[in-house]
Amino acid sequence: MRDQLVLFSTHEKAKEKGFEKMFNLTTQTALQKWFRDKHNLIIQVEYEEILSISCDILPQLKILRLNNEVGKSTNILPYEFRGVDYDTYELALEKGLEIALKYI
Asked: Is residue 3 one of the residues assigned to a domain?
């Protein structure tokens, strides 16, 4: 399985915020790790079971800001994105990376 490259617009915004990657390629995993290590932001994709005839399990998104002083985290994902179902894990992660860039 290959790591997914971020969209060009996400790559450009990340570069503006100080993210540097070799060969001008930015993967979702590398950017997710950068948020975690440099900005105490966890972009988390979870699967939630949807109650329907098909019993689909679709990915949903969380963005957590870690507060190491008190050992807690706060979900900072805007309300309009909470509970939104995405078709794939990668689409949910891309949206989370895009939103997280607004918090740094």
From this structure: no
Number of domains into which the chain is organized: 1
Q: Give the CA distances from residue 102 to residues 18, 49, 51, 76, 94, in Å, rounded to whole numbers and listed in that order.
A: 13, 29, 33, 11, 13
Mean pLDDT (whole number) for 6-35: 89
Residue 35 lies in a domain: yes
What's the confidence (pLDDT) of residue 65? 92
Distances (CA, A) of 90 to 28, 31, 45, 53, 60: 8, 13, 9, 25, 11
Residue 60 has a pLDDT of 87
Instruction: List the domain range (segments joined by +) for residue 16.
Output: 8-103
SS3 at position 103: helix
